[in-house]
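Translate sequence into structure tokens.
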Amino acid sequence: MKRQLSADDKGKIISMLVGWSGTKLTWDLLCIEVKQQLLLQISRQALDRHDDIKTAFEVRKEELRQGPSNKPVAGRTVMEQKLLEILERQENEISTLKAINSEYALMFQRWAANADQHGLSLKILNQALPPINRQASKVGKERQK
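Result follows.
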């Protein structure tokens, strides 16, 4: 059985996409990179099911289609070129995170509308979660043995 992607795994995959260098980006190439870097066997369909990964993929793919924004210019030092590369990576990360944030904002609007339709008040939606009773889960595991 394959394990599910953790939030940490998703973050690492999104970071891979943000820093993707080269001119070609495909789901299959991303799967290979995930396998090499995270030692995680995952299919393109499984990656595509995660909206934040899918959004990051689409944003980076579009950026790669448009071509590099900071082409090397004669007269720039190695340090200046490295700084431009860092800047480009940060700009890519910002645009990716903005796209993911927009997806979350739309999801929140959808949830708010559905909650309103079904008569859920803000008081109910803002209730604190009940504390986790860790002792109950330990007792249940002991009974299973």
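Note: Residues 78-117 form the longest helix (40 residues).
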